[in-house]
Amino acid sequence: MNQKEIYELYLKTHNKMIEANGFTEKSLWGSTQSQQLRFLILSRLFRSKKDFSILDVGCGLCDFYVYLQNNGYENISYTGLEINPLFVKEVSMRHPSLRIIEGSVDDLAAESRWDYVIASGIYNLGTSVESTEDFFIQQFEKLFPKIDVGFAVNFLSAFSKNKDDVSMYHQPSVILEKSMLHFSPHTQLYHDYLPHDFTLLVYKNQQQYL
User: Fold this and answer.
1) pTM for this entry
2) Which of 42, 74, 97, 109 lies deepest, with the highest CB count within 10 Å?
């Protein structure tokens, strides 16, 4: 499955979810409660609560931006990247001052850089686990040179006891090994916040932890 086919699958899937649920968290994945837990874990990536830049890959409705605003983050330079024009249009109405790029990782300017990059819920679809993992590696090989501090990404877990027939479920140990081989050994993995997914935090260099 090539990159174009994966994008087409995402558009088809989420457009059906928008039609069924409107522009809510259910047009992305899951409930408000699970979304907020994922955001809490993703935000462990940050070394402070102010003065940094972030790229949100597959930003959807920019709910992560709202989470940051509601949880005391200040002076955050936020950029959203989204391939679905329906989400981009909705976000432009909700948050007209936000910088949203309609397109994929390939559409980012060569000179663009951010302190952090996050990708939440965007590696859940595909025709095989292997092709979805290859897609993750390919995307972040393009993104990694643009990152100054680190990135966070989450996946559905192969240890989930509530699997469906559509989503891709990944072995945490496999993702961890691939990420450390391709990107950095300075890595943390969280698998304790929800029963069906896990999050990887990857830093370019050794960090001074809070």
Assistant:
1) 0.91
2) 42
Rounded CA separation 41/200 (Å): 9
User: Per the structure, how many domains does the chain have?
Assistant: 1
Is 43 part of a structural domain of the chain?
yes
**Structural domain includes residue 162:** yes
Query: In degrees to the nearest 10, what's the CA dihedral of 125, 167, 118, 107?
Result: 10
Name which of 116, 200, 186 is nearest 156 in CA terms.
200
Neighbours of 96 (CB within 10 A): 8
pLDDT tens column, 3-16: 677 777 776 776 67
User: Is 14 within 8 Å of 84 (Cβ atoms)?
Assistant: yes
- Rounded average pLDDT over 59-65: 93
Distance CA 82, CA 101 (A): 6
Nearest to 122 by CA among 166, 58, 31, 42: 58
Domain assignment present for residue 7? The answer is yes
User: Quick one: pLDDT at residue 69?
Assistant: 96
pLDDT digits (tens, 9 = 90+) for 158-206: 999 889 888 899 999 999 999 999 999 999 999 999 999 999 999 998 8
What average pLDDT does this structure show over 139-161?
Answer: 96
Pairwise CA distance, residues 191 & 88, whole Å: 31
Tokens of 199: 């999050």
